[in-house]
Amino acid sequence: MHLTSAPDRRALSRRPTLHARLPRYAAIALGALSLFGVLLALVEGHWGPLAHLDHGWATSLYNLARRQTAWTASLQTITMLGGPLVMRTLLALAAAWLWAIGARTLAGWTAAQALVGWGVEWAAKAVVDRPRPSWPDPVAHAAGPAFPSGHAMAAAITATTLVALVWPRADRPVRIVCCTLAALSTLLVGFTRIALGVHWPSDVLGGWFLAVAVVGGTTVAIELWKPGALSRDVRRVDWRTRPRVQSVLAPAVPFPERRTGEPLGEPSRLDELSETSEQRTASEQRTASEQRAASEQRAERPPQERLGEPFDERPFDPRTPD
Fold first, then answer.
1. Which has the closest alpha carbon to 188: 304, 171, 196, 147?
2. 183 lies in a domain?
3. What DSSP state is assigned to residue 315?
4. Is residue 164 part of a domain?
5. What total of structural domains would you count in the chain?
6. Does 63 map to a domain?
7. 110 is in which domain, residue-wise?
8. Which of 52, 40, 78 is nearest to 196 (CA)?
9. Measured at the alpha carbon of residue 57, what is the angle toward residues 51 and 62, in degrees to the nearest 5?
10. pLDDT in tens, 189-244
């Protein structure tokens, strides 16, 4: 398989554009926001089945964490690596890289996920002000209101954003691996918050709902503000990074031999764009200089030495003087 040819670019160009999928993204964002609103109403109304589920799961996992010291240490390590500060740092690094290569709108979209997510989380916690679980012998401590879980929300936003950045340039196996890792990391971070006794299960669920609403809503807002800019930046990131990857990896990976008579295949449009306009101009100037030098050398030679050379086959131009 070619290092940078998956998926097929022609098939990618035939897919619906991001702007054409806006109604779907808007529906997903509104659906997640509606589920968050329903969950918030149940939490504020102290609905019996939800309260029973929260206390039952939280108590069982807390007792397990208190008895197993190694288990608790592993949970604390995972929850630290999946914390909001680490997740937002990853998004900041991704946004800085996108900005550096010229994908400015995509960089703004990535940074907006972190900033909007932080603002929405802070506002929701301030409005709901739900107390955290209280235990006689806590295994972990956390400050601030409980609903929604900031760890769960930040992990879900970061995982979704990074998968969205990788998705257009990955083939099917890579997409499956990325989605699996993103889902497992999001679930694992949410589980640690419940097992350490610092959140109720409904807090984690609310963080996930709100994360989907933030990612979908931010995408719709930026696409409506600058239609087509995100899709153009995705293509720009692709072909700008391909020559660098090929220059590093191509010497170490031999290309398969081509049999005699086997077609080379059609070059994609992105392969043609990989050569910049400056390179093409320099190549044309170099070719013109070589042709001019060869013509001057031929004109300086005696006529008897040029008897066997072919005539100049350039078409006759009446505007050109003899």
1. 196
2. yes
3. P
4. yes
5. 1
6. yes
7. 21-242
8. 78
9. 120
10. 999 988 888 888 999 999 999 999 999 999 888 888 888 777 777 776 654 444 44
